[in-house]
Design brief:
about 270 residues, TIM Barrel, five-stranded parallel sheet, four-stranded antiparallel sheet
């Protein structure tokens, strides 16, 4: 074999390897990292990060754990995949001036959503949190201080983070906080799922997200659409950040596009098994 032929074969082999790596990627908080194409592992006993492998456009991704494995802890990452329904969720670490625009778009489309808030959000924007509840949205527990909950093994310390947020919400709205919990940064362990379940919470991960949280480097509208439109799927639990300027600007149009694809919007309270 000539030297040029050997070079061609090596180049072809390298490109094939890169293509295989790119074909299966893990979406982790919007980042994409290569992972094995093997079946999802069981719920990790040690600390881990929630992640997704998108293998086919328009189809539900494979999660770190399956729906069946999560369900034993009242945990979810995917809703009713037999219907063209989307569950909208927003993580609210603080008020960045965009949440009311997001609420306006949801109201226009009669779309229920869940807002996972932390203590800072309730303290700094109580009127907005009260509006969320008044307009029929779920206000969920994202902990009081937004720590790495996977590092907390003590049940009392775990409970304090959730109870402190719940108490502040009750003081602010006069209502009980709905029992939906999202681990900060998606960091969790099997023990965390047990701890949340023992407190009566449903743990909610997600099946679709993109890099929208960096306020200093916001995606363009087209970049957002390129991630959110082809990857939408039946039963999707969508994670967006309320701090994102792009999300606020495109949400009305994004919901319109999803509706044109035949999708409707449902509350987390309508998740199968809740």
């Amino acid at each position: 074999m000539s030297q040029s032929s050997r070079r061609s074969l090596l180049t072809l082999g390298a490109l094939t390897t890169l293509a295989l790596i790119a074909a299966v990627t893990l979406t982790l908080f919007g980042r994409e990292e290569p992972v094995s194409a093997a079946a999802p592992a069981a719920v990790p006993a040690s600390a881990g990060n929630w992640g997704l492998s998108f293998q086919n456009e328009g189809q539900p991704p494979v999660g770190n754990a399956s729906r069946e494995e999560l369900s034993q802890y009242n945990a979810y990452y995917l809703g009713n995949s037999a219907e063209k329904v989307i569950y909208l969720t927003f993580d609210c670490g603080y008020e960045n001036g965009y949440t009311e625009q997001i609420l306006d778009a949801l109201k226009k489309h009669h779309a229920p959503a869940a807002f996972f808030v932390v203590g800072h959000m309730i303290e700094d924007a109580p009127d907005i949190v009260r509006r969320m509840a008044a307009e029929g949205h779920i206000v969920g527990n994202h902990t009081f201080h937004h720590p790495d909950m996977s590092a907390i093994s003590d049940q009392a310390a775990f409970q304090k983070e959730l109870d402190s947020l719940s108490a502040l919400y009750r003081e602010t709205t006069g209502q009980e906080l709905p029992r939906f919990y999202r681990p900060p940064q998606g960091k969790y362990s099997e023990e965390n799922l047990r701890q949340a379940q023992a407190l009566g919470y449903n743990t909610v991960f997600w099946s679709l997200a993109y890099v929208d949280w960096n306020t200093d480097d916001q995606p363009t509208a087209q970049q957002a659409y390129d991630k959110l439109l082809p990857r939408i799927h039946d039963g999707a639990i969508v994670l967006l950040h309320s701090t994102s300027r792009t999300n606020a600007e495109i949400l009305d149009d994004l919901l319109t596009k999803w509706e044109a694809m035949g999708y409707t919007f449902a509350s987390l309270e309508e998740l199968p098994g809740v």
